[in-house]
Batch of 3 targets.
Target 1
Amino acid sequence: MALKHQPVVIKLCLLTAAMFGFGYALVPLYDVFCDLTGLNGKTSTMAATAEAAIPDKQREVLVEFIARPNNNMPWVFEPVVHKIRVHPGEIHRIDYLAHNITGRSMTAQAVPSVSPGQAALYFNKMECFCFTQQHLTAGQQLLMPLQFYVDPALPEQFSTITLSYTLYEVDAVAPVTAETATGDNNE
Amino acid sequence: MSTVTTDPHAHAEHEHHGPAKGLKRWLYTTNHKDIGTLYLLFSLLMFFIGGAMAMVIRAELFQPGLQIVEPNFFNQMTTVHGLIMVFGAVMPAFTGLANWLIPMMIGAPDMALPRMNNWSFWILPFAFSILLASLFMEGGGPSFGWTFYAPLSTTYSNDSTALFVFSVHIMGISSIMGAINVIVTIMNLRAPGMTYMKMPLFVWTWFITAYLLIAVMPVLAGVVTMVLTDKYFGTSFFDAAGGGDPVLFQHIFWFFGHPEVYIMILPAFGIISSIVPTFSRKPLFGYASMVYATSSIALLSFLVWAHHMFTTGMPVAAELFFMYCTMLIAVPTGVKVFNWVATMWRGAMTFEVPMMFSLAFIVLFTIGGFSGLMLAITPADFQYHDTYFVVAHFHYVLVTGAIFSIMAAAYYWLPKWTGHMYDETLGQWHFWCSLISVNVLFFPMHFVGLAGMPRRIPDYALQFADFNALISIGGFAFGLSQLLFVWLVVKCIKGGEKATDQVWEGAEGLEWTIASPAPYHSFTTPPEIK
Amino acid sequence: MAIAEKTAVGVTVFDLQFAFVQRQRRSHVARTSYLCWSLLTFLLAFSTQSAEMPLNMTQGVTEISQQVYDLHMKIFYICCAIGIAVFGVMFWSIIHHRKSKGVEPAQFHESTKVELLWTAFPVVILIIMAIPATQTLIAMEDTSEADVSILITGSQWKWHYKYMDHKVEYFSLLATPRQQIDNKLSKGENYLLEVDRPLVIPTGKKVRFLVTSDDVIHSWWVPAFAVKKDANPGFINEAWTRVDHPGIYRGQCAELCGKDHGFMPVVVVAKEPADFEQWIAQESATQAAAKEAELKLLAMNMSKDELMALGEKTYMGYCAACHQPNGMGIPGVFPALKGSKMALEDLPAHIDIVLNGKTGTSMQAFDKQLTLSEIAAVVTYERNAWDNNTGDLVQAADIAKAQSK
């Protein structure tokens, strides 16, 4: 009798294990899904390469920049310009000011979010301070660059893109990366 | 009097080996009937514990202002009420019914894996002891809602989260073991001639439910594990600061959560499909379409999870997809309701308590279905979402749906379990008190929700006061009415009119061919199905 | 008037359907009829007496909210019609096809024709429902350029509004006094739906809301606009509205966000564009002046009484939700301040945690939420209230010094 049950039981146990794995697989799947559909306005964490996109001079898109330190992050963090009008395909560079006003060294990570979410697919960052962690010593100020272009394929219905950064404190666990980040940014 | 024994199974001892004596019988039992009884009694206990928490909630909400409990404790009550009712009352009750009935319905001597069956029950009391014990720790128990949205359940919760996660793991393991047992039993132990399309619908719906359980309980186990590692081990699945996304939590949770809703209602469909034909004295209308409808509801349940999260911000295309899929579920569900009505049509009906609960189920579950359909409409959902309209909706499908079907099942099979007829007058009293109070309890919630009262709040604006008082009165009355049920069950176990083997005039199925009460071992030689 | 009428119709249908179910039942079980009847009278009495609570979804004050309302009613009526048909057949059968009438049960158990029909028919109804729903949804997601953009940030348990094109930003907190919640004072008309500083928007203009959160998930909801958007930490969400009539519109946080989820209302005041311009100009000036005044304060010393009075007010508004009015906190969740080491001994750490918060906990940084003098006062208060009696006085200048450290 038990022998008769064994194959079914084994198959069901495998199915259970597979579904447990699937729960975890949903994490990368979700990222893929976000990349495809622009769900939740996630942007790529990789630098985009400047394709030979021909700027579309006929069209203008308003790009707004929001920068917020999270509420237990005591830095000053704001974009130097708050909004610009761009032609899709044009490469632009803007700076963000970060100022560690506390009396200790801190490491921060900026998390980007784009609204409307689907526009995130067409917002390409070639260089961004959000790709790495930023380390600032006590009282240090830093201008952090963002270089981007809006893909000319951006659907017509989008006329405004809002890019928001939330700045979080990172527990200083990776001093090596922090150092490299500092080195890069002491311009 | 000496002929009336208090133990319904006592006479089974004359057979080759009957139940052991005392506590050991229950601790070591591998008998599907004993385990079924344990599950049912456990779920009844949990129903009252979860119900007591609902009473605390309704007492606090009886009047505006904070009177009885602090908001933090109120949140613990709503959270643990939800967890207990879902995982402790409804699911174990259905598993208990499955244990009692599936072997008897398919002509099997027992469940396929009896020792595992013992385990899957006996780990449950530990799971719920852990969950309930967490209420007494410093800072109280889980207070983030039964949906435990991150980061409220991770960064912003107290250490009861660890206990919560552990207890959900145990509940999940129990459910998965129960589901494996059901599937193996149905696949391997059907009596000769019992083809799949001859199985009673209760067996069919449980077969599908068991697959749903195996598909989604591991996902729940995964998501609670992620919560645990996010809180204690430095991972960032749901923490934006570390590159995670709190909305991802909701996607994974509801990928489990929506099929879970059907886990709690598909067996109910099976129960109603057994009872309505009996008391209509007419075969079930559209057996095959019932099977197909159940399967398609189960399949669709994997495609609609995001309708719980329309307000989280989604691309229009995604919103439309989930809206259309959700609306589609109305079709197979409608087919079921139409089939039940067609079964009654030109039957010869009588209205014993199981039938009364089934009729109430059909009407009130359908009302819950209508509000579900309204909730599927994305633009309107922006107004309904997270208000009492939602609370009304899911209590109509879970209380007057799942719980009423469990009540109906208990009344329907009690004579077979105990060998005695239950007290019909008392049963009718229980039914009518429940029916009226449950509607006083949940119907006004529709209005309160439409008027704009959010759910999960311990205090509310003055305009909601009158209706909340009314709802609380309904709540207390419904809670008290359930004591009648306990009284009735105790009475029925102790004695009463002797039940015949068939019990109900129109009953059909293998379980009605064996003695009442069902002997400790039934179908040791499989019956022959024509 | 129109609103009231339509609401009444909606309610009547709802009640009728309910009554219908009840009445059919009543006809065959006599002994419970009295109970049912009294319930019905009770329910109907309620719907007439409590006139202050609308019994239906609001029609709101925007084109979108009106569309949502119409959609809601359309689907509600369709559901009622289906319900009446299905339950009608069911109860007809219950009355006529009962054993006590001596009927012989029929034995039919399937009919492919009928089954196909009642599979196809609902599909048609669903398509009829889906068309207007799709249209409304697409209208709601119109992302064309807005006239005013406002960044809304939720945090435990308050909202923060920041006008993107003006130097105006502020927190909006529950204004209902604690005594009303604790039933020590009688409750005001807008109990739990009132804030100290409402959001102000112009009428007739497209106002865009960018919604985000600083800690857990909140949800910004104003029923009159049919706007409900989740505030997700680290992500922004977008919603918009165009309000036609000036007025005060109230809503609440709709997503469970912890202990005081029930106590973070949303109040929006819509003003004529001219009034709005005037308001925002004045507000910019006031906020700029406040910053200057803050600097002047550095030179001044406040007396203990002043510090304690301002400190108590600030504490009750910003700190008491977690640390409790008596400073005892909630064991295991929020630490006590009364008798705590930090409040009794370590002054620099005390100022630091109020200024900068503590990562990974609910303790927010109040540096940008409160003025220097408020922070000084609240620290003084925490060190002297509830028998803490350290005698420490903290001045705005001390806070400024700590900031620049």
Target 2
Amino acid sequence: MQVQVRLFATLRQGRFKRQSLELPEGDSVADLLKSLDIPKEDVGMLLLNGRDAALEAPLTTEAVVSIFPALGGG
Amino acid sequence: MSSRPVLEPMLTEEQKATLIRTLEPEALDVLTLDRARRMAVEIDIPLKCIEWFALDHGMTVPRYEPNVLALGRSGQQRLLQSSVMIVGLGGLGGYVLEELARAGVGRIICVDRDTFDETNLNRQLLATSSTLGTSKSSQAHERAKEINEAVEVVALTTALAEVAPERWQGVDMAFDCLDNIPHRRALAETCSAKQIPLVHGAVGAWCGQVGVIWPHSSALERLYRNCRDVERTSVLPFTAATAASLMASDGAKVLAGKRNDTELRFLFFDLQENEWHSITFDDDGPDASCKRQA
């Protein structure tokens, strides 16, 4: 299935800004992160089709996933 | 739920009567700082209460006039009536304090147990060559009083966990200016238990995120659901100042009654790319989203 992936800020380093990826049917957001080599601890806001989602959320064809880095400094 | 905090009354009936007796014969159009200061001593009423009364009776208070044009008299009065707690007085907290004191928030409790060190100098407003080694909360107190003596400032040189429950009495809003996730979680839990909104802000390198977390929402958990803590990262001076200004603005909007919704809306910015993203979380939690998605 085709999934649209949008990465933000530091998560783009060595990767991309936005890209369409081919993933196996039934993959979840966690599987996507693994394929992009993004440790889950680095992920802050995570949106699936514009709504905040958990790592276990299943992906569907043409899903749009937006991944922001975790920020904690002050 | 209303986004507008219910604030404590500013004056007792006795204070009101004293102010009417003192101010009405003078028929002032403008209450200067000098006159207000003398009056505070003469009639033994706090300066912020005199300023609030002057605004209530149509007088111009020059200090707040540039605010009043945007906030209205009632908005400015609400700020003077408000009580906030700023937790963390580093890169975010120093600027938040600066702006809230200038805006005229009536009572500010400043919480930080640390002292300034050299690694703070790049971004922390209160960190200067001469304040190295001194208490952050004491410097915050001094700075806020220097900016606006009408503001009641309480400095607590302590960790969040050690803030006595009575210190939360009357607090209308808290500002999360902390630098680690476990303490942010603890603050969010406290605010939720006390039913007060929490203004969240976090930064890293060129990026920041800011938003208001309403009581009993799981927004903070959802922001940090994947990580226990983040490694100490770079924070640039303009990133901290930008995030802090957005926090002060978000908080002032709610306190002044200028925001009516209770959406879970976060702004994520990336100053390196000049990108700004507004993200709204569902109110009903991520599980519901996932079920619908499935």
Target 3
Amino acid sequence: MLVGVKFCGGCNPRYDRGKAYEAIKKELAGTAELVIAEEGGEYDFLLVIGGCTNCCASYSQYHAKHGPIKMWDEAHMDDVIKKLKKQEE
Amino acid sequence: MALMNGAQYIESLRKLDTKVYLFGEEVKNWVDHPMIRPSIECLAMTYELANDPQYADLMTAKSNLTGKTVNRFSHLHQSTGDLIKKVKMQRLLGQKTASCFQRCVGMDAFNAVFSTTFEIDKKYGTEYHERFKKYLEFVQENDLTVDGAMTDPKGDRGKAPSQQADPDLFLRIVEKRADGIVVRGAKAHQTGSINSHEHLIMPTIAMSEADKAYAVSFAIQSDVPGLFMIYGRQSCDTRKMEENADVDLGNNKFGGQEALVVFDNVFIPNDRVFMCEEYDFAGMLVERFAGYHRQSYGGCKVGVGDVIIGAAALAADYNGAHKASHIKDKLIEMTHLNETLYCCGIACSAEGYPTQAGNYQIDLLLANVCKQNVTRFPYEIVRLAEDIAGGLVVTMPSEKDFKSTVKVESESGMTVGEWCNKFFAAAPGVPTEDRMRILRFLENICLGSAAVGYRTESLHGAGSPQAQRIMIARQGNIEMKKELAKAIVGIKK
């Protein structure tokens, strides 16, 4: 499973988005491949990592078969991991 | 060319032959000059973050001219969403540099010249808009930094450009040729001018027919013959010249830059001319540029404010005063003031509207309210920061003293460094050097070289307070408010 990742621009993040990305990537190793999303790429999911509740990252330019999964809080990490693991099952 | 990174940007400056004067002498290698380099590092950050996926959503945009991804600093705003992202990008860069990163003036000039040239062409049948679009494509393709230059030296403030005793005190056209124009004059207070590949010149005030020679807008490479810059001094700037300077600088990597940019009979080819004597559009261009730039301050100064609040909180921690209720309350007040500025930046963006040319303009009233607050709140923020930090901000010995191994002739036999570290230790577990670093940062931003960007630039940059009050008076819709009052109290006429 290929997951494209898009970050918001990080103007006032409430947590370390980069660390969250690395932690999710590590947890999903062997289940899903997480890569920085690029235009023209085809992904199974798009993970949008926002820094606050606004989660303002633009992502309509990316193609993901099963749409976006959004997170904007460290507390969302477990849900993201569970959701992606479940999809792989 | 794709987006440049920070190192590529710095190397691109070395290819320019920009003439720079500092302390009365020409500086040949200005890229590596210790007083200039920190401002270059700031600008490099605008390139570096554009290549980082964690920041690219704010730092880049899709060009409406070419469809390619460009640095947002060379983008024409296509929506209110773009205007909002501009402010967020500026907050981000303020956080990363704690300085003025200098590239906003170009972005604000692009958007103002784009929409104004469209309307000049519509009235006069000129071809400025198409010229400007080609120019901006060139800027975007090469990822250039452009100094959007508006402010003339102005001379006697009571007189119009054409009434000045010295006609050069406002930049003007001195010759019109078949292939271009020759200009003479200067632009003062130019932020980042030395670090810019190009200059985009605009008139500085609304003008009458008598001033038409001064109604001129054009773009020119920064190193053409006749163009040179004289560097502006900043408080405590020579600390940057001290050997191995680090802690005493407060911010040892980043800083701002202003210069006087002089045009001594500079030739501008026609394809770079975007206004030539259309004096009736000078006011429109000024108003639009100023509007964008007053919006900008609701982002950049907020980002710097974030760092100041963090530094003040750390100073309290290091002093062992962080549990005091008045300290907590002062940090709340600083946050309230800072976020109020951000609210204004976001609000004037969200209320933006499309110009006739299609790019988006901010709401003028709210942008002027934004900047009016910026003329005041940073002063209160640094006052509170100094309050929290304590007097040591301005009385502590130098870094060399703290590191000195020279023994003092006294009974204890301790070194100067040992005495300093003994008496300036505070909260347990906090290295004295860390405390010094935070206090020096606050010194620098409150009254050192960085105060140029955070204090006086907040007051006078993008127009002094009275300029905003004039705009607020024009845009304030007082007549409608009178009608509201009449309706409530039952006045018929």
